Amino acid sequence: MHYFNYKNGELYCEEVPIKKIAQEVGTPFYLYSAKTFTRHFKAFQNAFSEIKHIICFAIKANSNLAVLSLLASLGSGADIVSKGELFRAIKAGINPKKVVYSGVGKREDEIRYALENDILMFNVESLSELKAIEKQAKLLDKKAPISFRVNPDVDPKTHPYISTGLKKNKFGLSRKEAIKAYDLAANMENVEVVGIDCHIGSQITEIPPFIEALERLLDLLKTLEDKGHKIKYIDIGGGLGIKYHDEAPPEPDEYASEILKKLKDLPYTLIIEPGRAIAGNAGILVTKLLYIKDTEEKRFYIVDAGMNDLARPSLYKAYHEIIPVLEKKEDKKEILADVVGPICETGDFLARERSMPLLEEGELLAVMSAGAYGFTMSSNYNSRPRVAEVMVSGDQFQIVRERETLQDLISKESLFNL
Ligand SMILES: *Cc1c(COP(=O)(O)O)cnc(C)c1O
Asked: Is 40 close to ligand 1, i.e. is its CB under 6 Å away?
């Protein structure tokens, strides 16, 4: 569910016509709906209300301060994967006591920064990392709260680049390694074991892989408790998928009810780390059709947003629905077209072989479901300033990140002068 809908023949975000924003801000730009973010966050909150839980929004999905501060106001915590994301979380008013730190490659300075800010826990992915955390905690005379990320070896049946819970992936520890790691950590003076964690992948559109992973986690948990380890938090990661095209992912309450069946009589605090399911359909990318180019092979719609602005189609062959901001009459003809950007790469496309309406040069298009892994994955490739981000609430809008300027492109650089 989202609040991007046609009214009187044109696309609105909540109560604001998108054309009006484009006139003021220029194109391309990311457009977010505060009401949609709120709705999605509350869907998770309500779905898990039966048990103690913390929703740790995965900041890598959308790290804009306005988004984070909105979620903070609703009570969100954060799943971070870098020092930069912790910095953003704190600036946005997210309580560090609701922050979990994931990722296989935490640097010393990042670990220190997280310790200084008293986060809830580190999701530790290797013994070497455990030792690095112990060392920094000792230097700061602190006790580092940790959980181990367990690799449950389940197939989430999603794109290979976003599968993370298979044995062959770089993430987490096997059951056997995890038991060793818990024993080791229990004897470390500056480390406190508080949780167990997994995250099996992203854009998962069915419930069984989540339950399978949870069962393996609970089974391991029992072994650990029999050995005397005390575990308070059980973190099942994120990964719930969204509808981009014809997927039919479970709603948060269906997902939750299956999980609650396993957890509701147990004493743990549940942590979930949704990113895409909260942000994905809360944002779109608005772009302008620059040129129509008909070759002998096919039609190209050349737009002013490229793979540097939205990487997902090029990176994962991801599908994003693309619709005109001015609604077309249903009886208007459709044509097969590639929607491509201005970047000098053949991989620069937003859609391929897509049935599209007949459009006119200069028209605005909405690339749907772009609120997660959209702006955060964007770059300056081809020296293109990163686009603006705009948030709508009701009948108002706010520019929440200004479009970068040409000067921004070079502001950290210098001419060669040795
Ligand atoms: C990316 C990631 C998430 C969020 O995944 P979504 O599919 O966006 O929900 C959560 N936890 C970890 C550890 C991640 O790497």
From this structure: no
How buried is residue 104: exposed, middle or buried, by Cβ count under 10 Å (0-12/13-18/19+)? middle
Which atom from ligand 1 is nearest to the alpha carbon of 372? 8
Instruction: Say what the alpha-carbon torsion angle 399, 401, 406, 408 is, to the nearest 10 degrees.
Output: 150
Asked whether 236 lines ligand 1 (CB < 6 A), one says no
Q: Could you give the residue numbers annotated as active site?
A: 344
Give the nearest ligand 1 atom to 123 CA: 13
- What is residue 260's predicted lDDT score, i.e. its pLDDT? 98
C-alpha angle 129-134-136 in degrees, rounded to nearest 5: 95
168 pLDDT exceeds 90? Answer: no
How far apart CA 6 and CA 11 sit, in angstroms, is: 4
Residue 242, φ and ψ in degrees, nearest 5? -130, 170
Ligand 1 midpoint to CA 198 (Å): 10
Index of the ligand 1 atom closest to the CA of residue 197: 13
Distance CA 8, CA 216 (A): 52
Locate the DSSP E strands across 22-128: 29-33, 53-58, 77-80, 99-101, 121-124
Q: Ligand 1 within 6 A of 202 CB?
A: yes
Residue 237 Cα to ligand 1 midpoint, Å, equals: 6
> Is 79's C-beta closer than 6 angstroms to any atom of ligand 1?
yes
> Which CATH code, of 3.40.30.10, 3.40.1170.60, 2.40.37.10, 3.40.50.150, is assigned to 4-32+280-410?
2.40.37.10
Sign of torsion over alpha carbons 305, 311, 312, 317: positive
Query: Predicted confidence band at 240 (pLDDT cuts at 50, 70, 90)?
Result: very high
Average pLDDT over residues 195-209: 96
Which of 199, 255, 271, when mutated, tests ligand 1's pocket best, judged by the most ligand atoms within 8 Å of its CB? 199
Tell me if 80 CB under 6 Å of ligand 1.
Answer: no
d(CA 317, CA 347): 10
The arithmetic mean of pLDDT across residues 373-384, rounded, is 98
Domain ranges for the chain, please list them.
4-32+280-410, 103-272
Q: Comparing C-alpha atoms, which of 262, 414, 394, 365 is closest to residue 29?
A: 365
Which CATH number fits the domain 103-272, given the four candidates 2.70.70.10, 3.20.20.10, 3.40.50.300, 3.30.2130.10?
3.20.20.10
Closest CA to 112 of 91, 85, 130, 132: 132
